[in-house]
Every structure is written in structure tokens, then in C-alpha cells.
């Protein structure tokens, strides 16, 4: 099962969104987003919720607890 960082990167690429744009949406730096995608750091709960809301996916899917994207 993909890691959290791999899921973030996969979803971002599927939606054709740049790291810069997603970082702006999340109110973080592109460097911080790269760290998430490379599994160097894990996002806090608020950032995870923002990612799930932005991509309209479930938190369980995002963190790898489910393969079902929707709630």
C-alpha cells in the first residue's frame, strides 16, 4: 500500500496540480510539501483535512487505511 507521501504526490499529479499551487492552497511552502511527498515529515491533522477536502477524498484513503477514495 502506498505511503502517505506517495498518495499525496499521486493525487496531486492525477489532478495536474503543481507543488506550488497545492502549497499555496495548504498555506505551506513548496519545500514543506516536497518533504511530505518524500516522507521526510508528516502533515498535521489540519493539513490532512485540508488535503482531503481539497481533493474530495476520504482521510482513510489519504493515509492508506482504505483503497476507497470517497467516504
From TrEMBL:
GO terms for molecular function: DNA binding. It comes from the Bacteria. PROSITE patterns: HTH_CROC1. Signal peptide: none annotated. Residues 8-62 form the HTH cro/C1-type domain. This is XRE family transcriptional regulator. Pfam families: HTH_3. SMART domains: HTH_XRE. Keywords: DNA-binding. It comes from Salicibibacter halophilus. Transmembrane segments: none annotated. The keyword DNA-binding applies.
Amino acid at each position: 500500500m502506498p505511503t502517505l507521501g506517495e498518495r499525496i504526490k499521486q493525487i496531486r499529479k492525477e489532478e495536474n496540480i503543481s507543488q506550488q499551487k497545492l502549497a499555496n492552497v495548504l498555506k505551506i511552502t513548496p519545500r514543506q510539501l516536497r518533504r511530505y511527498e518524500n516522507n521526510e515529515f508528516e502533515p498535521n491533522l489540519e493539513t490532512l483535512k485540508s488535503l482531503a477536502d481539497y481533493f474530495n477524498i476520504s482521510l482513510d484513503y489519504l493515509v492508506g487505511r482504505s483503497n476507497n477514495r470517497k467516504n
